[in-house]
Design goal:
Oligomer: single chain
Largest sheet: none
Helix content: 55-70%
Radius of gyration: 26 Å
Shape: flat
Distance between the termini: 54 Å
Number of helices: 16
Length: 367
């Protein structure tokens, strides 16, 4: 499971993280759960209780008792995982200030190498003061970055974390340092000229497909589509007698099935746009400023082409149907997922982009 032992000399392994020591995140997770001795005690206790009840009452088994035993058994299997995540969240909540100080010191921004150094420092800090049983608290820098955003950046931006008291200054300084790093990344991208479009991305999908539905036909062989089809068939089978007895009921069920199908298709598209990470969205904002599209369709088409190329080169999108269909879809993504940040809707993803989005909206006159 573990490919090599973690060296004891901390100075000799400055950038070693669990991602280099384990085959994948699942083996790392199993290793971490295995070392949570408390949760294994609970597992053994639940299993012992279930077996004891079964031995004593096997001759008097009934429906409720079998259900209770089955529930206890399932709970005992899930208890280690639930306990692990509970303890991890509890440890993270207690050590927020240490995380904030480490981020303020290293100023990682969106630099993954620096985030891996932050993760390594926190792993050893938690291990050496016995806050965690292993030195593998964070699997990689990306996980550490995500934890920082969820536990500190988002609460601070939304006003849920007090930063007025002197002992909370570390949170404010960490967020300011982090946002400064984002500004630097944005300025660096903006100063570069737009890359030349390759032949593959010079033509938008709208010119090769009549509709978005024909472009994203891969949806019809996706797991979500077959799940929806199965549930629809199941409902038709179960409600068959009621549906056939009333035309109103038939029309109502047909309407509901169509609405569910459209919502499912919309969710399928949202998952694609949800793959855009923080750096991708910064690149998107910088591309908008460099092209200054206003509301001109042709210029938004150009933005869509550049973003399609960037996201495929970065391997964030990998399949042909993972593309902006046209500039209108690109503009809609900006209006619904990014622009609201400028007006203070910080419950959206990546609230730390609020200042950058406000600047882009003002400069490009996208009010």
């Amino acid at each position: 499971m573990v490919e090599q032992a973690l060296p004891l000399d901390k100075e000799a392994c400055i950038t070693i993280l669990p991602k280099q020591l384990f085959r994948n995140v699942f083996t790392w997770l199993f290793h971490e759960i295995f070392h949570m001795y408390t949760c294994w005690t609970g597992l053994l206790l639940c299993l012992t209780t279930s077996l004891s009840f079964y031995n004593f009452f096997s001759a008097h088994l009934n429906g409720p008792l079998v259900a209770a035993l089955a529930g206890t058994f399932v709970l005992s299997l899930n208890l280690p995982v639930l306990w692990y995540f509970f303890m991890k969240h509890r440890t993270t909540s207690k050590r927020k200030e240490d995380m904030a100080k480490s981020v303020a010191l290293l100023d990682p921004g969106v630099d993954l190498d620096k985030w891996e150094l932050v993760a390594h420092n926190l792993n050893w800090m938690l291990y050496e003061d016995r806050s965690w049983r292993t030195s593998h608290f964070f699997f990689n820098g990306e996980q550490c970055h995500c934890c920082f955003r969820n536990e500190i950046v988002r609460p601070v931006m939304q006003g849920k974390l007090n930063t007025e008291s002197s002992e909370k200054n570390a949170f404010r300084e960490a967020v300011e340092s982090y946002q400064s790093g984002l500004d630097n990344t944005y300025n660096e991208i903006q100063q570069d000229s737009l890359p030349e479009l390759s032949q593959e991305f010079r033509v938008l999908p709208k010119y090769n497909h009549h509709t978005k539905l024909s472009f994203r036909k891969r949806y019809f062989v996706s797991v979500s589509f077959f799940e929806l089809l199965f549930y629809e068939c199941y409902l038709v089978f179960m409600l068959g007698p009621f549906i056939r007895s009333s035309y109103v009921m038939m029309l109502f069920c047909s309407f509901c099935l169509i609405c569910v199908a459209l919502a499912n298709y919309r969710t399928y598209g949202s998952i694609r746009c949800g793959k855009l990470d923080l750096k991708s969205r910064i690149n998107f904002l910088a591309t908008i400023v460099r092209i200054a599209p206003g509301m001109e369709t042709d210029k938004w088409d150009e933005i869509a082409m550049h973003m399609n190329q960037y996201l495929h080169d970065a391997e964030i999108w990998k399949t042909y149907d993972e593309n902006f269909f046209d500039g209108a879809e690109c503009l809609n993504f900006f209006k619904t997922k990014i622009k609201p940040l400028a007006s203070g809707k910080l419950e959206l993803a990546y609230p730390e982009l609020q200042n950058l989005v406000a600047r882009v909206v003002e400069v490009c006159e996208l009010e």
